[in-house]
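Q: For a teaching handout, I want to show students what a protein-ligand complex looks like in token form. Below are the inputs, and the small molecule is phosphoric acid mono(formamide)ester. Please produce the holo structure.
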Amino acid sequence: MSLNCKDLLGLEHLDKKDLQTILNAVKPFKSLFTRSVKKAPTLIGKTVVTLFYEPSTRTRNSFEIAAKRLSADVVNIAVSTSSVVKGESLIDTGKTLEAMKADYIIIRHSLAGAPNILARNLNASVINAGDGFHEHPTQGLLDLYTIYDKKKKIEGLKVLLVGDIVHSRVAKSNIWALTKMGAEVAVSGPPTLIPENIKDLGVKIYYDLDEAVKKADIVNILRIQLERQQENLFPSVHEYVELYQLTKERLSKAKPGVLIMHPGPMNRGIEISSEVADSPNAVINEQVTNGIAVRMAVLYLLKKRKNASSN
Ligand code: CP
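A: Here is the structure, written as tokens, with phosphoric acid mono(formamide)ester included.
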């Protein structure tokens, strides 16, 4: 898989050149957002289907807005009211959508690899909108773009990811993208939520958040998945808050221009304090805006690749 593929299933197999191509493609789409008509004709006559087996606010709506701004016809499948509940398989659902002439299928699924299965069985382009603990490539790309937009570079920046790394597809996609682009990536969180072998990817581990925050140019806070507490992966929410919440006091020890990011949805008062989430250092709402432009760029590049292979 690479940018020469019909699908976007993850960032692991993209190289630096692919990532830079995507970053370069975003700005023209973002510049549309300040116009009274925010549309381009890129996907006119094409059909984009969103197929979400898990809840989403940002990603699903962001893809819908992106596809509509590219003039596509958009269909949203609510899995809970579809024939999936009658036992239809993923491949049969995909083939049904393809028989309806879907050109792009954007899928979120709790099983890692579900988008890959769909991609192997369909001619439509498949975009992974988050699969299990595996990857969330467009979140990784919008995080990468937000850093690039703000800092004007990626190489040499110190990016700290905080929280539940082991269960986070956002962390995985961020790590692939940032390390390929030459950033120095570190993670911080309780030992039970950090896989030791992450060091093999060139990522530093800090169990002490205060020490880690001081060195960072960017701090990306991950959502604490409260359901993990039932698995006893951290002793209590209270202890997590004490040790790993990004508070105003911790932020005061960071570099002055540090960027604070969060992929959302946020648990205010748990992994991040409201003061920090609303501070001038936070670029959380800009991440959301950039997400639309990044998804427009991804759809555009996949279409360009399809056109090239059909010529
Ligand atoms: N960041 C993210 O994936 O958010 P949603 O679950 O709302 O799509």
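A: Two things your students might notice: The longest strand covers residues 125-131. The two ends are 20 Å apart (CA to CA).
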